[in-house]
Write a structure and sequence with these properties.
Blueprint (H helix, E strand, L loop, with lengths): L14 H10 L8 H25 L3 E9 L5 E10 L5 E10 L6 H15 L5 E6 L3 H9 L3 E4 L1 H15 L1 H19 L1 H14 L14 H13 L1 H11 L8 H26 L8 H18 L3 H9 L2 H6 L6 H8 L12 H21 L14 H5 L2 H36 L10 H7 L5 H10 L7 H4 L1 H4 L5 H14 L10 E4 L5 E6 L4 E8 L2 E7 L5 E4 L11 E8 L7 E6 L4 E9 L2 E9 L1 H4 L8 E7 L10 H18 L1
Parallel strand pairs: 1-4, 4-5
Antiparallel strand pairs: 1-2, 2-3, 6-9, 7-8, 7-10, 8-9, 11-12, 13-14, 13-15
Helix pairs in contact: 3-4, 5-10, 5-12, 6-7, 6-8, 7-9, 8-10, 10-11, 10-12, 11-12, 14-15, 15-17
């Protein structure tokens, strides 16, 4: 549970867990927290040793690498390794997530990666490295003499984001859409009205999604949800008498055609990011299918803005059009029995890939000749080969060696040609089947091609495995330390806050806190009066709630007080306080070289003990509704207008 479910070591001290284990087996004695930590460390060491043994068995490996900064501006580097096991299964292992103290130059990156490869004993086995298009990442691969493959998901993100930014009218629609979504995400009344209208119209109760500037797929999700919920959204805004501008029917037509153009890119990104099997061999056929779908859907577009977007998306060709000339990707595609030579859009590139595959197969045959192959002997009368052996051997040695080498080369090339032709004429594997299973079953029929398949099919198409390490590893949240220190000062008890995925803070009251910021979230959920758990999750709204006695009553109702809270877009969201929460909270935290604002609801007891810890500074509490002012001029003006309107209507 500690490893798989990321539970804290203190779970063995929890009364509920101890009672649960005792109920299962009264004779079992739970280990202490210290003993459990030792057990986990031993398990890690044994698992690492086993993984290293598995890597030693692997003939070829590929790496993915990525870098990121924590909220404390600490640099980290993550490297993952991908290989094919002797059982013909794709395997992935995290080589390391390390603090990166040096400047992010190619030389320093090369040194860090070299250290990891040496530690795991795979230096001579690495075939390629997949990273984003950062120049330091590309140069570090070159310094390591490794083949560099650009992350396909990163390329798609750049292509689509640039195309959206270049289409003026779609940009205007995105701005209007963000304001509409912001209204329903910042107002409880608006959100409730939307739910009501969804029920009346018979639409599913779905939340609208706000766009994240750096991720084009969030733009797709925002527009898609808004289009699907256009009727209840329009009805809700109309009934609210809001001044938020509605999208027109022609704008919805543009959204519909734009979504149709972007749908193939969305599917491609999702498919490759979730791929658990062979993926690099998909790049060439996937690029061709994207091209085909883009031309097809652009031809069906009637709105000028959608046609412009389709033209801008043709940037796909400039970024990915050279895939067929990339030898490693071409050979990976050719060695995938689902695609072979049919996947190539240019037949000449397919034939070139077949030629390279034959040459590499022949080279492998020459370096590893079959043991049963008969040795060549010079022709001629037997008497000649035995007469004056010493002088004859010296005289004809050079000639005999050249003839022997010519014969061996001819045989290897001929045998390689036969093996490659036989494979290419073999039946295609269904697209949804596992190509590694195909090669495992035909290892005896195509022995040399099987070795090359393990070499080229272990390459991933994206660096997503390394990128996702940044979400779960080495995240030191400054706000969690402020929470722990505040509770310790209030209740005079020890509270821990460490940079781990889950941790415990023992307190007398229970506290419910949800804090959103990039790149991680802290939540403290009071499940029992004496235990709080700090849990790092994905970003969502910032909500700070001190529940004390309220935790015993999960159905506690709002107390009428409201405070501002923050999400990734603004600090003008309205949060309804409940129970003993009679204060609004505001603090600032240093993140990414900028000050990040944190807001929410708290009780007087927490405010009386506020303190500054680490990067969280300027902690302040105030009384009154919405007293922890919003930073968004637009939203503040909206609330002011609502207040004036209410005053006019009531007086």
């Amino acid at each position: 549970m500690v490893v798989k479910d990321l539970q804290p070591f203190t779970i063995v001290e929890d009364m509920g867990f101890r009672a649960f284990v005792n109920k299962l087996d009264p004779s079992y004695v739970l280990p202490s927290r210290k003993a459990l930590k030792t057990m986990v460390t031993e398990k890690y060491n044994s698992t690492k040793e086993k993984t290293m043994r598995d890597l030693q068995k692997a003939e070829f490996v590929s790496l993915t690498a990525d870098m990121w900064s924590s909220i404390n501006i600490d640099g980290y580097i993550g490297v993952t390794c991908h290989y094919i096991t002797p059982e013909a299964k794709m395997a992935t292992v995290v080589l390391g997530v390390r603090r990166f103290y040096q400047t992010h130059t190619a030389q320093h990156l090369m040194e860090a990666k070299t250290l990891l490869m040496s530690e795991w004993g795979i230096t001579s086995k690495v075939q390629c490295m997949v990273t984003d298009n950062a120049s330091n990442m590309i140069l570090s691969a070159q310094l390591l003499n490794l083949r560099h493959i650009p992350c396909f998901a990163h390329n798609l993100n750049l292509i689509v984001k640039k195309a959206l930014d270049q289409t003026a009218l779609i940009n205007e629609i995105r701005q209007k859409a963000r304001k509409i979504v912001g209204l329903f995400r910042s107002s409880c009344k608006a959100k409730d009205k939307l739910v009501e209208m969804q029920g009346l119209i018979g639409r599913p109760t779905l939340k609208l999604i706000q766009e994240v500037e750096t991720r084009w797929n969030s733009t797709f999700d925002m527009l898609q949800h808004l289009y699907e919920q256009r009727e209840p959204v329009a009805a809700a805004i109309s009934s609210l008498n809001s001044d938020t501008a509605l999208l027109t029917s022609s704008e919805y037509d543009i959204i519909q055609e734009s979504l149709s153009l972007l749908q193939p890119f969305k599917l491609a990104t999702t498919e490759l990011s979730e791929e658990q099997r062979v993926s690099a061999s998909k790049l060439i056929p996937l690029y061709r299918m994207l091209q085909h779908k883009l031309v097809e859907k652009k031809g069906l577009a009637k709105q000028d803005s959608a046609v412009q977007l389709g033209s801008h998306l043709q940037g796909l060709q400039s970024r990915c059009g050279g895939y067929e000339s990339f030898r490693a990707l071409a050979l990976a595609t050719l060695l995938d029995p689902r695609f072979k030579i049919v996947a190539f859009g240019n037949p000449a590139k397919g034939q070139e890939a077949e030629k390279h595959l034959t040459l590499e197969c022949a080279s492998l045959m020459r370096s590893n000749p079959p043991t049963h192959e008969p040795q060549w002997s010079a022709s001629g009368p037997s008497s000649s080969s035995t007469t004056a052996a010493g002088s004859q051997d010296c005289l004809w040695e050079l000639f005999d060696n050249r003839v022997r080498e010519s014969h061996t080369t001819h045989s290897a090339t001929a045998d390689a040609t036969v093996e490659v032709k036989k494979y290419l004429t073999d039946a295609f594997l269904p697209r949804m089947e596992d190509p590694l299973k195909y090669w495992k079953e035909r290892a005896v029929i195509f022995p040399k091609l099987y070795i090359l398949a393990k070499k080229y099919l272990c390459m991933p198409a994206t660096s997503v495995p390394s990128f996702t390490l940044g979400v779960a590893e080495e995240r030191d949240t400054a706000l969690s330390r402020w929470i722990a220190a505040t509770l310790e000062q209030t209740h005079k008890v020890a509270a821990t806050a460490k940079p781990v995925r889950k941790m415990a803070a023992t307190t007398t009251p229970c506290l419910v806190i949800a804090v959103s910021h990039e790149p991680s979230q802290v939540t403290v959920n009071g499940k029992e009066p004496n235990q709080a758990t700090v849990d790092l999750k994905e970003p969502s709204d910032i909500k700070v709630k001190d529940c004390a006695a309220d935790c015993a009553n999960p159905s506690i109702s709002p107390n009428g007080k409201t405070c501002y809270s923050c999400d990734e877009k603004s600090c003008s969201n309205i949060l309804s306080c409940s129970g003993s929460e009679d204060r609004c909270f505001k603090a600032t935290e240093s993140f990414g070289g900028q000050s990040m604002v944190l807001k929410g609801c708290v009780s007087k007891s927490i405010c009386d003990a506020t303190t500054s810890v680490g990067d969280v500074q300027g902690v302040s509490c105030c009384e009154g509704n919405l007293c922890n002012d919003a930073k968004s001029v637009t939203q503040s003006f909206l609330f002011l207008c609502c207040s004036l309107l209410s005053f006019i209507l009531l007086h």
